[in-house]
Amino acid sequence: MTHATAPTDPGAPTRVLIAPDKFKGSLEAAEVAAHVAAGLLRLVTEGAVGALEIDELPVADGGEGTVAAAVAAGFAPVEVEVTGPLGGPVRATYAARDGVAVIEMAAASGLAFTAADDDAARRSGTFGTGELVSHALDHGARRIVLGVGGSASTDGGAGLAQALGLRLTGPDGDLGPGGDALRRLVAVDVSGLDPRLTTTEVVLASDVDNPLLGPDGAAAVYGGQKGADDAAIADLDAGLTRWVEALTEAGVGRAADVAAGPGAGAAGGLGFAALALLGATRRPGVEVVLDLIGFDARVAGTDLVITGEGSLDEQSMFGKTPVGVAAAAAAAGVPTVAVAGRTTLTAERLRENGILAVYPLTSLEPDVATCVAQAGPLLEDVSEILGRTHLTGRRTGE
Length: 398
Hints:
This protein is an alpha/beta fold. It is built from 16 helices and 15 strands. The relative contact order is 0.16. This is Glycerate kinase.
């Protein structure tokens, strides 16, 4: 959490809340907010606007960046060594405060730890994410927010379940990790599942509405992004099918219904395990994050909200940070404008989603590679232009 306040004129300053997501590949959300603030404060130095009170509040959509947003809002970072998607150790950080733990599955089981190839797609697992959940429970978590996105695996959350006490056996004993191994799954013993989960609220922060299996399922839709070829996708889907069958045989009566429902296919099927075994409730990711970071309290009394992300495009209209921020700001009666690396949206499409205007870096520098490399300085320049348009009419006394 960062606050930047310019020297004050007599009277109340104009209040601006900067609530962006990251610019993927160039700036983290907190860096975006800091550069926007720097651009706006130039206007105070120049006398173009009166006093500004700027509140920087990094946001995420429930995927990568969610832990960083929670930490920026006052949660404590907790670093743990866990099992990576291919079995080696990785250092992962989650956020904790007042009995709430915020976990990103990508921090333990993400694509960043693997090569996107057929072998990795078959063998990657989610055991490390389960270890993060277990660690949080050991340290008093009563509510766990599980942010998904960027998964390396298609194991249906079987690894997560194993880390939390389920025993999976194959023809030769305990089953190894990865979605491909699930084709050899003989039986599941659910008796060892951590009993603390029955009294712990688990929130699955996800906008993915795919089911677990079939042509719209986790393997078919997302397996290719993880390096799986057509044969691997078919094998992974077969493994997930067997995983659902084995859980049903083990007495998890709702497994088949959950597998067919929305969200089960999130994060290679980790959504399925969270919903079927951990009793999770699924909520839109950006809504969960806005609640965690106290957005409603921070936006109250604000004159303008500035949000943004690297590419503001049609995909942004479906559960991404800028639209979620704009909706929450509109509910508080506060207008929203955006910054972006680039945008493909018309002014009409933006207004339909609560964003009055967008200021892309490409309006100053058409070359996208240069925008990525020089994102910070360009963001300050474009934010100064934004401020001249939206703040100069708000000088104190006017």
